[in-house]
Amino acid sequence: MIRWSFGEAASGLARRTHVDPRHGPIGRSAARGQVVFHGIQHPNPQETERKAVTETTALSRELGLDGRTVFFNDWVPYAERENYLLEADVGVSLHRDHLETRFSFRTRFLDYVWAGLPIVATRGDVLSDQVRADGLGVVVEPNDVDGVAQAILTLLDTPNVREAFRSRFGQAAAASRWMS
Question: 2-176: CATH homologous superfamily?
Fold first, then answer.
């Protein structure tokens, strides 16, 4: 299973890398896995639905993937997120090349490290630097649709992918702890 937080997919990368049959691992072969998008509704109720969400859900329905290999969820309650993290094979966190990206600290990375979940991330922030330096997954260029799909497929094709990364995540988790 590929876990994707939809909050970061406003650029439409989710549609192109996961659902579109020309690019995504699900489009190329439904047997490769399932994609679970979390947070398709913006947490601010005054925000209107985003174009990328509408396009991605429509394409998924059109291709007959919705509810079969592509799933759309609202925000997962904090106490339940570990269930999804421990079930997933790959965690995805993609962002635009932007100043906000460089100075963000996305807590989903900490969730992925906690769960020992190999990561596909875009270059541009301190956490993607850590993914690259510590060998926690694959870092791709922003907006590199084919690179994202290939990175996901590479991780999905790694036998016992979580076991292959276990020691690296153990070290990264230890470095991320602090004493209370």
Answer: Glycogen Phosphorylase B; (3.40.50.2000)
